[in-house]
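Quick review question:
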């Protein structure tokens, strides 16, 4: 199990010399021992008082939700007439995509209609056929579990491995984070991502920026209507000398931070 970047083994025996750190919650309900065993695995155990604070276990076990965008440099998710990835994907980027762990994808109705159309063989406007890389990407999405949030779509959904949710998306995702297993990731779905971010449900915010400005043909601007958000960088990388990945932990701000006083 992973929590805050650490590999965690619940109730594992303490081993080795004491790099173990004891944390006593203010409630006094339990003692939590954290440390690294000789094999390099970060472990924790509960001890001291009879029962640990249940909210602590719940926070450790909660599923992560990542908002994941690919964008042009000027912050658009798509542009009319352009191929997938703006035709600028390279071998390093495609190899990295193949290495990504399995997730459950979350999407809204517009993204479902677009992507399920691709899966059924409908090519993007201005193109006659899919490239091999695009076919592989759509095939991978077809095989993955997907949750679609919509009040307009009707069951049964035709795209394989899709579950339709009609209720409030934020409440449904909150329940999924608390009760399920495995990671969650959005795909496309600009308005869904915005609502999940506003609800404080997003743990990771990842953007892959392609070196193109689509001022004349752009179709979907990502950040319009967003709240103010502070972003703490956790990762960055360059693929094929031109594609930039940046990943952050987001914090929605109620107001701009005050300027430091001198």
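Suggested answer, residue by residue:
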């Amino acid at each position: 199990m992973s929590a805050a970047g650490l590999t965690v083994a619940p109730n594992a025996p303490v081993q080795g010399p004491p790099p173990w750190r004891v944390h006593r919650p203010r409630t006094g309900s339990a003692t939590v021992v954290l440390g690294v065993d000789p094999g390099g695995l970060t472990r924790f155990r509960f001890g001291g008082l009879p029962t640990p604070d249940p909210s602590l276990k719940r926070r450790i076990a909660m599923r992560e939700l990542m908002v994941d965008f690919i964008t042009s440099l000027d912050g658009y998710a798509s542009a009319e007439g352009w191929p997938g990835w703006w035709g600028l994907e390279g071998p390093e980027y495609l190899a990295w995509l193949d290495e990504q762990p399995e997730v459950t994808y979350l999407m809204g109705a517009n993204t479902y209609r677009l992507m399920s159309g691709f899966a059924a063989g409908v090519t993007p406007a201005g193109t006659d056929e899919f490239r091999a890389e695009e076919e592989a990407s759509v095939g991978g999405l077809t095989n993955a579990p997907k949750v679609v949030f919509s009040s307009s779509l009707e069951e049964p959904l035709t795209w394989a491995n899709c579950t339709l949710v009609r209720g409030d998306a934020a409440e449904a995702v909150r329940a999924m984070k608390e009760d399920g297993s495995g990671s969650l990731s959005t795909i496309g779905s600009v308005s869904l991502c915005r609502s999940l971010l506003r609800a404080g449900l997003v743990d990771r915010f990842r953007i892959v920026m392609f070196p193109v400005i689509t001022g004349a043909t752009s179709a979907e601007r990502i950040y319009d209507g967003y709240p103010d958000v502070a972003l703490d960088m956790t990762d960055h990388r360059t693929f094929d000398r031109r594609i930039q990945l940046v990943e952050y932990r987001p914090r929605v701000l109620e107001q701009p931070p005050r300027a430091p006083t001198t």
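Why it works: The helical segments are 54-61, 91-99, 109-119, 132-143, 169-179, 190-198. The longest strand covers residues 229-239.
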